[in-house]
TrEMBL record:
Cell compartments where the protein resides: Cytoplasm
Positions of the B30.2/SPRY domain: 75-255
GO biological process, one term: protein catabolic process
Documented EC number(s): 2.3.2.27
Name this protein carries in UniProt: E3 ubiquitin-protein ligase RNF123
SUBUNIT field: Component of the KPC complex composed of RNF123/KPC1 and UBAC1/KPC2. Interacts with UBAC1 and CDKN1B via its N-terminal domain. Interacts with RIGI (via N-terminus) and IFIH1 (via N-terminus).
Organism expressing this protein natively: Bos taurus (Bovine)
Protein keywords: Cytoplasm, Metal-binding, Methylation, Phosphoprotein, Transferase, Ubl conjugation, Ubl conjugation pathway, Zinc, Zinc-finger
Lineage summary: Eukaryota, Metazoa, Chordata, Craniata, Vertebrata
PROSITE patterns, per the entry: B302_SPRY (PS50188), ZF_RING_2 (PS50089)
Annotated ranges, domain RING-type: 1234-1272
Length: 1294
């Protein structure tokens, strides 16, 4: 080992004490008296009383071993005997879990045989040692708070997957999950436990009693009269369900909550502890003094100033200490020392590598467990203490690299170090003292009515006191977060490459494997990182990443700040970074490399090795076969079945499409074969695969003629680098992390805020009832007062917990991290889009993260923090709007899921005023292209979201279309007001104008679009009617029937789709009425006839008295809340008013004639809109007098006087026109009616077959099909048909 501080190189072997001759030669290094004084000071007697200089024996390196043996001598004879044979105890002195025979079921046991995870239904395991006499105790650390039964059992107890500890005779257990005790039968006992709690299990075999304690508080005697006597001995035992985990302490470590009179099952190694303590005292003495050979004296020094130098006397002294100390290092010291770095230097110098490595491994395992399960105290001192010790260890270069390479990601879930757990009980974190005053936001209990109430002075004082408490809590949490960031800064250090690879590149390899396990190995449950850990890890990693990014900018001015960070597009297609089986925008990577290989060569100067493409093609044909050696190298984990079983194979290896097609890239990266000279622009770079573990610093960062990760730079990208290539890979991993589980976890944590709102609303309702309740009803007042107290206590608890969540998860700094990540994704997508066809190589998760991070900023961080406060907020909204507008219909994106996500994101985007204005701010060309894509025919694509977008652009302009919630739903339970569907109307006249211009633009745009809308309306309403028929039939049966909730949901969806399609038609008629009313257009008459036919069908189905629709609405079934008369009738009314009232005179006349000519038209349906019921048929019962009839006049809050007047005008016009048409109509024989619709006279003949129908039927048919109705011959032309003219022509010909 090389000493970094002393600047002097020496080897461990040179100073190893091998012979007496060698010892003799080194005694003269310093003056003998000075050496003797030095050694006496270092190896002083245990009582620390210095012997007189005249009476003490001179010490040198020849007689030092004898003196050291005397110093370390402990009278341990009695201890050893007691350790081996303790009365009342049987079994090995070192107590562990019996993983060889004392178990039932499948269990995962830790390497130290003290931790266990359930891996089957209800597994059981006991210890290796039992007791039959005396008082004994052991502790269990609860790692998860699920179903477990902890206690004692005898060797004769037999367990299975259904019966565990406490379910048989002579077995006793405590269950804190169900708060019960078990011994064949069960009764209530104790209190609930939580993760991090310590359960103490105590047995008194002298009195025959058994009890338990939780966190040092006795739960009382659980069982009495235990069976004792010959053959009765009790083992510690546990039964636990799947994924539950605990850690035992039988006494190998000091008990957290010892109980007087009770003895741990395993005695502490007292002799070894005494020896270790004395050796540590000697070691401290070495660090606190210095030899001055020139002056011949000893110099006192602070231990923190001590430096390891090449003084042979000091080194030989330390060698003697470590010669005795190394065998005692079974566990770590638990106190952080300022000299940890020097201690680790000495450990690596004087001990064998495997000894140091095992010591470090055990040390980190202990630190991880201590940090994870330490109780939360107000100042978080325990967590800070363990993190500082971790930092001290990781600050040592050699130790850090060993731990990174072999322990942190391979053995431990090191992400735990970056997690700040939320207290399950407010009391345990001292939040009552930290936040003595509670407060919660007051929201209006009713949606649809704005209730603006000024804050009272008392509420203002409470809020400010609460905010001060939150700030105190936040500052304490920030101390822990800063320490966690320091750990990551150590792991990302790339300057420690003296004698090996720098820490950052080891971290990159492990980090990528960590991402792969969480992205691809979802069948391998124990290896997945919990989402709550991933959230904290993400924020700490962003802080460390930005620190190094900006530090590099300071040293290289031509690079970019972290505020301008993005991932260059060449990383996605040059194969340098492994994306496992994650989908690309253009599909499978193997497919893209084949189809776009010419583009890669021309735009990025990259050639894919033909052999690799061929290998991939052949690999696609292989079955799921794996060579035996590869199978033998899979990860193994110790199980409690006496052997190791392979963990489940990751799903991506078994996928016949994803896994095999990508295999040559899923575990390898493409590396540049380093050229000897710079490449010209025209030269191509051939790439080959390179295993991720084989990558070196040069493969990542590049060299003089090698761009490393950035090989294959497209011409659109700048030549100067953004930052170090390794930081780009870390940034890419951060984006992937957010996509894996961070976003979902951020959404889950909002539940605390939702609970606060629900309880606050319940408390306000209760207080209102208390004020209204008569004082004579004391029974009701007592119940209401009790409810008020319960709600207040719950709100106090939740508001303090919410303060913790806001400080740890939703703080302003965390919001800025997510905002920075959003901007990174936007820049990455913009740069990738400029590469043209190569954009297809980008992983889908970049678009997903851009969408989801914006959603998180908008929905999860309020109301405490607002996205509008962030710098560059409007610009960011506009850039995201441009991306959504361009890529929701991008042909380069083929994945169905990501295309749906883009469409849904755009649909949500236009629901909010700020984001809708951002859409209006994008360049006009992009806006018009977006609207053109929205107006594409609905067939052959997901059209529901497209229609929803158009509806939102119109909402607020239509007839009676200014509501947020439907009128009949206002009295029901309020919904989440943040939902897009519940936003106030915010129409866009600019986008409406673009739509009108496009519909007028070409002869085919409007007909194809409207034909598809009418087709979907016909389908949606027909499906709705068919479903409500089934629902009505089920409701009328005498036997009890339950309608499937899924069927109800589909039924409601079809109704909502019908309404939205009608609104799109209303918008179209309003913006471009000539499409229907200008019959100079070839398709106008056909479109108008189809529209009239559908409107009449809807009106007839909905307005008939006591009909199917009316009966189903009256039922008010859960799931069909949105089904009502109002939304669909006002939509139809809006269309009719636009056609019959607002149109030009000629257009109104045409629309009236077409509407009246439809055989389904009934004037009473129009009268129904104004509350004029249909007269009862002869012989039927009169309707009930109290029956309410639908009328638009009842909705004056939503329909204004002018609109009602227009409906009355329309009814008067239709009444008059209907009477005139009835008087003028002539009877028509059945032979002259169209054989398709039987509603209109024959008016067209088909050529060449000669069959006939009305023009409306044939025009509608020809929109989708060119074959004749009757003979299936191809129709060449359609001619007008007039029976009279045809008859005269026939007679004249005759």
């Amino acid at each position: 080992m090389a000493s970094k501080e002393g600047g002097m190189a020496f080897s461990r072997k040179s100073y190893k004490l091998t012979s007496d001759a060698e010892r003799s030669r080194v005694t003269g290094i310093v003056h003998e008296k000075l050496l003797s004084d030095y050694l006496h000071r270092v190896f002083a007697s245990p009582d620390h009383r210095p012997a007189a200089a005249t009476s003490r024996k001179p010490l040198n390196f020849q007689n030092l071993p004898e003196h050291l043996d005397q110093l370390l001598h402990v009278d341990d004879k009695e201890d050893e005997e007691s350790q081996e044979q303790v009365e009342g105890r049987l079994g090995p002195s070192t107590v562990v879990l019996d993983h060889t025979g004392g178990f039932e079921g499948l269990l995962l046991v830790d390497d130290d045989l003290l931790g266990v995870i359930g891996h089957s239904n209800f597994g059981t395991i006991r210890s290796t040692t039992c007791v039959y006499k005396g008082k004994w105790i052991y502790e269990v650390l609860i790692s998860s708070q699920g179903l477990m039964q902890i206690g004692w059992c005898t060797i004769n107890c037999r367990f299975n997957q259904e019966e565990g500890v406490g379910d048989t005779h002579n077995s006793y257990a405590y269950d804190g999950n169900r708060v019960r005790k078990w011994n064949v039968t069960t009764t209530n006992y104790g209190k609930a436990w939580a993760a991090g709690d310590i359960v103490s299990c105590l047995i008194d075999l002298d009195e025959g009693t058994l009890s338990f304690s939780l966190n040092g508080v006795s739960l009382g005697t659980a069982f009495e009269n235990l069976s004792r006597g010959l053959g009765m001995a009790y083992f510690p035992a546990i039964s636990l369900s799947f994924k539950e985990s605990v850690a035992f302490n039988f006494g190998s470590r000091p008990l957290r909550y010892p109980v007087a009179g009770y003895r741990p099952l395993q005695d502490p190694p007292s002799t070894s502890l005494v020896r270790a303590q004395r050796l540590l005292g000697c070691f401290r003495a070495v660090l606190s003094m210095e030899l001055d050979p020139v002056e011949g004296r000893l110099v006192e020094k602070e231990s923190s100033e001590w430096q390891l130098q090449g003084q042979p006397t000091v080194l030989l002294t330390l060698a003697h200490i470590f010669h005795h100390f190394a065998p005692l290092l079974a566990g770590p010291p638990e106190q952080a020392q300022t000299v940890v770095h020097h201690v680790l230097d000495l450990l690596w110098l004087f001990m064998e590598d495997y000894e140091v490595q095992d010591c470090l491994k055990q040390l980190m395992m202990s630190l991880l467990r201590l940090y994870r399960f330490s109780p939360i105290v107000p100042d978080l001192s325990l967590q800070i203490h363990y993190l500082r010790l971790t930092i001290a260890i990781l600050s040592h270069e050699k130790s850090r690299k060993f731990l990174l390479s072999n322990v942190l990601f391979d053995v431990l879930r090191s992400v735990v170090f970056f997690y700040i757990k939320s207290p399950l009980r407010v009391e345990e974190a001292g939040l009552q003292e930290l936040i003595p005053t509670t407060w919660w936001p007051h929201r209006s209990p009713r949606e649809g009515k704005e209730e603006v109430r000024e804050e009272t002075s008392e509420e203002r004082l409470r809020r400010r006191a609460y905010e001060r408490g939150c700030q105190r809590l936040k500052k304490r949490i920030e101390v822990v977060e800063e320490l966690q960031v320091q750990i990551l800064k150590l792991l990302l250090n790339n300057k420690d490459n003296n004698g090996g690879e720098a820490s950052r590149y080891i971290f990159l390899t492990k980090f990528r494997k960590f991402l792969q396990e969480n992205a691809s190995g979802r069948g391998n449950t124990p290896m997945l990182c919990p989402p709550e850990y991933m959230v904290c890890f993400l924020h700490r990693l962003i802080s460390a990443l930005r620190f190094y990014w900006d530090e590099y900018k300071a040293s290289k001015p031509r690079t970019s700040f972290s505020e301008e960070a993005y991932v260059p597009p060449q990383i996605f297609y040059n194969g340098k970074v492994d994306y496992f089986d994650l989908q690309r925008l253009g599909g499978l990577l193997s497919h893209l490399r084949k189809t776009l290989k010419d583009d890669l060569a021309s735009k990025a100067n990259i050639l894919i090795d033909p052999m690799e493409l061929q290998a991939t093609t052949m690999d696609d044909l292989d079955e799921d076969e794996e060579p035996a050696p590869a199978a033998a190298q899979r990860p193994m984990q110790a199980l409690a079945v006496g052997g190791a079983l392979p963990l489940p194979r990751p799903g991506w290896l078994s996928s016949p499409t994803l896994g095999r097609a990508n295999r040559f890239l899923s575990t390898a990266a493409v590396s540049l074969m380093t050229p000897r000279r710079p490449l010209s622009a025209s030269e191509k770079v051939k790439v080959r695969t390179l295993s991720a573990e084989q990558r070196t610093r040069e493969d990542i960062e590049g060299s003089q003629w090698n761009e490393g990760l950035l090989v294959g730079r497209p011409p659109e990208e700048p030549e100067h680098p953004l930052t170090e290539n390794s930081l780009l890979e870390v940034l890419d991993g951060v984006v992937m992390m957010y996509n894996l589980s961070v976003h979902q976890q951020l959404g889950k944590m909002v539940g605390v805020s939702d609970d606060v709102n629900e309880y606050a609303m319940a408390l306000r309702d209760t207080e209102d009832k208390l004020r209204r309740c008569p004082k004579r009803r004391k029974d009701i007042l007592a119940e209401l007062s009790k409810s008020q107290k319960v709600f207040s206590e719950k709100l106090d608890h939740l508001s303090r917990r919410l303060a913790w969540v806001h400080a740890a998860v939703y703080s302003q700094e965390k919001m800025q991290d997510i905002y920075w990540l959003l901007r990174v994704c936007l820049r990455t997508i913009e740069h990738g889009d400029r590469t043209g066809s190569l954009f297809a190589f980008m992983p889908e998760f970049y678009l997903s993260v851009a969408i989801n991070s914006y959603s998180a900023l908008k929905n999860y961080f309020g109301p405490v923090h607002s996205m509008e406060e962030l710098p560059g907020y409007e610009e960011t909204l506009t850039r995201l709007a441009a991306i959504l507008a361009k890529h929701f219909a991008d042909t380069r994106i083929v994945g169905t899921d990501i295309r749906d996500s883009l469409m849904q994101a755009l649909a949500s985007y236009v629901c909010y005023p700020n984001s809708l204005r951002a859409v209006e701010r994008i360049p006009e060309e992009q806006r018009i292209a977006m609207v053109r894509n929205l107006l594409a025919p609905y067939e052959q694509r997901p059209w529901a979201q497209t229609n929803w977008i158009l509806v939102r652009l119109w909402r607020g302009c239509g007839f009676g279309y200014r509501y947020t919630r439907l009128p009949h739903l206002l009295k029901t339970k309020p919904e989440d007001a943040s939902l897009p569907s519940l936003q106030k109307p915010c129409p866009s006249t600019l986008l409406q104008q673009h739509m009108a211009d496009l519909l007028r633009e070409g002869p085919d745009v409007a007909p194809s679009f409207l034909n598809s809308v009418l087709n979907q309306l016909n389908w949606a309403f027909s499906e709705f009617i068919g479903m409500i028929q089934e629902i009505q039939q089920a409701a009328e049966r005498l036997e009890r029937n339950f309608v499937d909730s899924r069927q109800l949901k589909v039924c409601a969806t079809c109704f909502d789709l019908s309404v939205s399609l009608l609104r799109v038609l209303e918008m179209t008629i309003t913006l471009v009425p000539e499409i229907f009313l200008d019959w100079a257009r070839p398709t106008s008459e056909m479109l108008l006839r189809r529209l009239a036919q559908l409107l009449n069908q809807v009106l007839n189905r909905v307005t008939a008295e006591r009909n199917l629709f009316d009966r189903v609405v009256t039922l008010r079934l859960p799931g069909l809340e949105s089904v009502d008369h109002y939304p669909i009738l006002v939509a139809v009314t809006g269309i009719l008013v636009r056609l019959l009232v607002h149109g030009p005179a000629s257009g109104t006349e045409r629309a009236t004639s077409v509407l009246l000519a439809d055989p389904c038209f009934q004037l009473r349906s129009i009268s129904y809109l104004l509350g004029q019921p249909e007269p009862p048929a002869p012989g039927t019962a009169l309707p009930a007098p109290d029956r309410k009839h639908f009328s638009l006049q009842s909705y004056t809050d939503y329909i204004n006087v002018e609109e009602l007047a227009q409906v009355e005008q329309m009814l008067a016009h239709l009444t008059s026109a209907s009477a005139q048409a009835a008087a003028a109509s002539l009877p028509t024989s059945e032979e002259d009616l169209c054989p398709i619709c039987y509603a209109h006279p024959i008016s067209a003949v088909f050529q060449p077959c000669g069959h006939k129908s009305c023009k409306a039927c044939i025009d509608q048919h020809l929109m989708n099909n060119k074959d004749c109705f009757f003979c299936k011959a191809t129709i060449v032309s359609v001619e007008d048909w007039d029976k009279a003219a045809h008859a005269s022509a026939t007679s004249s010909a005759a």
